[in-house]
Amino acid sequence: MQYPTKQDKELILAISTLKDPNEVAGFLRDLLTPAEIGEFSRRFQIAKLLWTTTLPYLDIAEKVGVSTTTVTRVAQWLYKESFQGYFKVLTRLYGNSKR
Fold this sequence. Notes:
2 domains, mainly alpha, single chain, 6 helices
């Protein structure tokens, strides 16, 4: 499946129109279930910990309440995939990676 699809592009455009964290929060709450928001929040916490600490994957998994497989998957997207979405956000928020 090719990314982004036409529908993906429409969602990306919609998100890009949001002007501040309150608008983003409202949109996410309308778009996603609380469980989905929680899942995305956990993934971001994993990425943040991978970026800002040198904690082992097992410690990150325990701290966030996920499996080490999930930590490994987030690390794959953070460090090896070409989209660099995590990379851009984490660099803007926290500077250079500690790893």
